[in-house]
Design brief:
Blueprint lengths: L3 E10 L2 E11 L4 E5 L6 H8 L7 E6 L2 E2 L4 H7 E4 L11 H11 L4 H14 L15 H13 L5 E5 L7 H14 L4 E5 L3 H7 L2 E6 L2 E6 L1 H8 L4 H14 L1
Parallel strand pairs: 3-8, 3-9, 6-7, 7-8
Antiparallel strand pairs: 1-2, 1-4, 4-5, 9-10
Helix pairs in contact: 3-4, 3-5, 8-9
The structure holds adenosine-5'-triphosphate and magnesium ion.
The site of magnesium ion (MG) has 4 residues, from helix 1.
């Protein structure tokens, strides 16, 4: 079974068509990159797959569960670290972890235990008593990923996890993602193409809400006749823009 199955998915916001007939499959355990210029539809697709947005038409399922008809099941299967972070600014690191464990049904004791274990695993132990809003951008991101993982999801969505991070914090995040790789299905968006190349098994390029190309970064380089993945990306997206 594919972890994610997306068929002819369309999403309109008023007169804006954010997704226009997208079909994709993501295999279990894959680290899948979603690429595309600003406004291509990446975050909208993640919103639908994680049960936060309803599609206009078409279908999508997570481990065979339909995102519309089996919404509550889908929500149990996914964890999201959104582009705009979801952590509560006035709660401490530990309170955030406990809160997000609790809303997905863990008892108070379980939530406390999971929060402690997760804080340790993510190197957030020293900051457990700090309010989230006082953390730096990189530490907030780390907490946001920890929060997304606290329910032990089968699919993790990371929407621009390294945006605004310094090179050291970015490499630390790569390390976290590499450690998670293979243990769950991960969908990652990023505008840093070297990051996509370093981390992803396969990528899809979206453009104007449509799937422009799917493959490994090597396949897309060969297809565009480009030496670097950045050149391939520009060539593939540019082709579409010229049409
Ligand atoms: N809630 C909304 N209401 C109206 N339009 C929206 C909404 N969310 C997204 N859009 C529009 O849908 C399109 C796709 O947006 P989306 O955020 O999915 O793009 P993206 O690929 O994630 O872009 P970025 O790289 O800038 O994050 C854009 O035209 C955007 O303006
Ligand atoms: Mg986005």
């Amino acid at each position: 079974m594919n972890a994610l199955q997306i068929r002819d998915l369309t999403k309109r916001f008023g007169s804006t068509t954010a997704l226009d007939g997208v079909s994709l499959e993501v295999e279990e355990g894959e680290l899948y990159g979603l690429l595309g210029i600003n406004g291509a539809g990446k975050s909208t697709l993640i919103g639908i797959l994680s049960g936060l947005l309803a599609p206009t038409s078409g279908s999508a399922s997570v481990y065979g569960r339909d995102v519309v008809r089996e919404l509550s099941e889908v929500r149990k299967l996914v964890g999201v670290s959104p582009q705009e972070t979801a952590i509560a600014p006035n709660l401490t690191v530990e309170e955030n972890l406990r809160f997000f464990a609790g809303i997905y049904g863990a008892s108070a004791d379980e939530a406390r235990a999971r929060a402690q274990e997760t804080a340790r695993r993510f190197g957030l132990d020293g900051e457990r008593k700090k309010r989230a809003k006082t953390l730096s951008g990189g530490r907030k991101r780390r907490l946001s990923i920890a929060v997304a993982l606290i329910t032990q999801p089968k699919v993790l969505f990371l929407d621009e996890p390294t945006l605004g991070l310094d090179v050291v914090a970015r490499r630390e995040l790569w390390k976290i993602v590499k450690e998670l790789k293979g243990k769950m299905t991960i969908v990652l968006t990023s505008h840093y193409l070297e990051e996509i190349e370093a981390l992803c098994d396969r990528v899809a390029i979206l453009s104007h809400g449509k799937t422009l190309a799917v493959g490994t970064t090597e396949e897309l380089k060969a297809r565009a006749g480009a030496d670097s993945f950045e050149d391939a990306f520009i060539e593939l997206v540019g082709e579409e823009e010229r049409e």
